[in-house]
Amino acid sequence: MTKQNVVVSDAEAEIMNMAISVAVSNSSIFTAVAEKPPVGPPGYISISRKRFLNLKNLDSINGAERINSWVDSMRASSPTHLKSSSFLKEDQSSWILQHPSALDMFEQIIDASKGKQIVMFMDYDGTLSPIVEDPDRAFMSDAMRKTVKKVARCFPTAIVSGRCRDKVYKFVKLAELYYAGSHGMDIKGPAKGSKYKTGSQGVLCQPASEFLPMIDEVYKLLVEKTKSTPGAKVENNKFCLSVHFRCVDEKKWTELALQVRSVLKDYPKLRLTQGRKVLEIRPTIKWDKGKALEFLLESLGYANCTDVFPVYIGDDRTDEDAFKILRERGQGFGILVSKTPKETTATYSLQEPAEVMDFLQRLVEWKRQSIRAHSML
Predict the structure, then answer these.
(1) What b-and-e string marks burial along 263-300, b requiring 16 or more CB atoms within 10 Å of the CB?
(2) Are 308 and 165 in a shared domain?
(3) Which residues constitute the domain of residue 231?
(4) Which residues are catalytic?
(5) Which of 62, 74, 97, 365 is the most buried (most CB within 10 A)?
C-alpha cells in the first residue's frame, strides 16, 4: 500500500506520538516539551508538541499497524477514556493556568478588543449544543438561540461546523448568521437581518464542488459496508462524510476501522481526520476551518486590517486549524470548550455550552453598555 491509498492526518499522528511519549517517559501526556513558541501577541501560552514519528515514513507502517493506530486514536478521542485517565490535580491546574477561563478573564479580553471590530466564529456541536449520542438530535436550547441572535446583532457572527451547512441551519434557525458547513467547504452569508451582509446574495464559497460525485459514491459504499456494525452511523455532510462511532461497542472499533479503510483505499483524493467520536472523510484540498475563517474575514473586508478582533469558540480537534490561524495572524484568540485538559493552541477555555452562553451574554451586555455610554457623549 502506498501513502496515497489512505492519508493519515496530523491529528492521528499526534495521538500515536502521544502514546509513544507516555510509553517512553511514563509521564503525563500533558508534559510540555521545550519548543520555539508560536507567533502571536503577548500573553499567549501553549502546550508545545514533540513529534516522535515522521509522517514521511508512514509508508513503512503496514496495514495492521495503521488500523491499530486508528483505533488508538479513536480511544484517545473518547470522552469516556479521558475521564477514566488518572490525571493528577497538578496537570489540571497547570493546564488551566495556560488556558484560563474566558469568563474569569473577561475584562482582560475586553481590554484587548478595545478600538477593534469583534468578529465571532463558533462551532456548533459541543459548543452551542451538547454532545449527544444521536447526531440528528443535537438541538440547541431556545435560550442559546436567543443569545446567539443577540450576538449577531452586535457583531458579524459565523457558525463553522463539520456538518452540512443546510443541516446546521435547520438546528440554528437564524437567517442573520454566516454559515460555514463541511469544515468550511460550503460557506454562505446572511439571508437577511445583518448589517454586516456583504452583498444581496451574501458570500458563497464551495472550493470542493468537483468532489461532490465522489463524496456521494463513497457515502453509499460506507453505508453498505458499515451496516453490519451496530451503532455505526454514516452522515453525509455534502462536501465531507462523518462516520460516527459514539454508539459502537469499543470491541467493534477495529472492525469499523477496517471497514472504513477498505473503502478509502480506492479513493486517494480523500483523507481521513478525526473529531470527537467521529471519523471524518474529506477531500485532500488545502481547506479547513482555519481557511474558512480567513475567507470570511476577507469577505467582510478585514483581510489586512489591524483593527479586527476575531474570536473563535470550538470544542473539536478540527477547530485547532482556526485557533492556529488566529495565533499566526496575531489577532483575537481561540477558546476551547472542554472539561478536561487537551493539547490546544487556544488561548482560553470554557467547560461546556452553558459557559459558552454565559460568555456570549456578557459580551452582548458589554456591547450594549458601550453603545449607551458612547451615545451619551
Answers:
(1) bbeebeebbbbbbbbbbbbbbeeebbbbbbbbbbbebb
(2) yes
(3) 210-283
(4) 123
(5) 74
